[in-house]
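Researcher: Quick one. two chains, 460 residues in total.
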Amino acid sequence: MKRLYIPLILFLLLVLEGVALDFLPTTFFHAHLMVVPHWVLLFLICVAMFYERENVHIATFYAVLFGMLIDIVYTDVLGVYMFIYGVAVYIVRSLTKYLHANFYVAILFTILIVGIADTAIYIIYTVIGITDIQWDTYVIYRLSPSIIANIIFMCLLYPLVVKRLKVE
Amino acid sequence: MSFFRKKRLFILLMGFIVLVVLIGFSMQKRGGLTTPEQFINDAVGWTQSVIQAPVKLISSLISNIDDIKNTYDENQLLKEKLAQYKSLIYEVQELKQENEELRKTIDKTKSIRDYNPIQAIVISRSPEQWMDKVTINKGKQDGVKENMAVITADGMVGKIKKASQFTSTVQLLTGFDQFNRISATIPRKDNKNIVGMIEEFDAESNSLLFRIIEESDKDIKKGEMVISSGMGGVFPSGLVIGTVKEVIPDQYGLTQTALVQPAANMYEIDNVIVVDRQLVEKKEKTEKEEDK
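Model:
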């Protein structure tokens, strides 16, 4: 049963990402602050930490699949989120062997993985010419607000999913 | 162990190749979305339209509380304006009638001003804000096609980027680059319209760059209205784009560029109208090709 819930929740988060920005006050936009909700990635971090077993790659598989869906639905540039989410979740999977799975590690992963993933997106989008903002502007106006917003979301998500995800 | 390392590296490199191929595929100028893409877009779009209603309710509740604070002042202002509009309506009606009659006498019933409106609701906004995209709940089945202009009550907000069967994505004005130009004009009396092109959106000044061609009148005042001219062959004429904020000469001093503040608010779009231009050129060409 649990196997079915994971893609369903991921799909729901994917859909919710599209309306997430409605909740932000417009002053955010006028200040040029960009907040990117990486909710699918955050849930995948939880899956990789608590549900993933040694020999299966469920989290990585879903990361590639839902990365592709995000590419198709929200960005029109195929492959970017798919590749980055896949690699990012694989990093989490490899690191969980060395770290205890608890709340603080989850927050640490959020900072690390959202940072890596979003920077990689910035680099690829700069290379293919979708954005042309400077690195320091990017860090101030997009990277830091995104990381903070995603930490807040992780704090909400973590208590909801951890017990349900843990393998008996 | 070294075998596994190699396998891992192999997969990573394969992934990288796939990434480059996919980016190359999606960056090329393609006619439309492939069938699986349309299917996924419609499936997600359907779920979004289900979820969108309660979400809008909550978010509008929050903004309503904000609105109540300045209701009184707004009400006063609106009452004044309403009185002005009443007289304007009669005038417009008379002019419309006269225009129609005159058109009939010269047997020219179609004009670049005419369009069929398609009402639509915004169901989601791309979380990737560099894309400046929103999704609407009308697609090819409702007559939406690529490159149609999208407007709100205030003015133009963008154009249809990709159309699926039941949903389509809108490229907002804030994401316009040199490939999405609009031929625009500042209307003046005695055939002295100022003409030019909306070239791109400048994020720094938060405004659209309106390059005015050389022959035009040079004296432009702040606050003048820029509207689409319909000469590009894609958008109909008479759509409000924005107001002039500032005029700056280009680096050689030959042409002038006006910074145009978009009339519509790009961050709070709920209901939009897709503009289906009635008069279509026989040779189907987009503005992009025309500019090249």
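Residues 283-292 of chain B have pLDDT under 50 and may be disordered.
Researcher: Thanks, that's what I needed.
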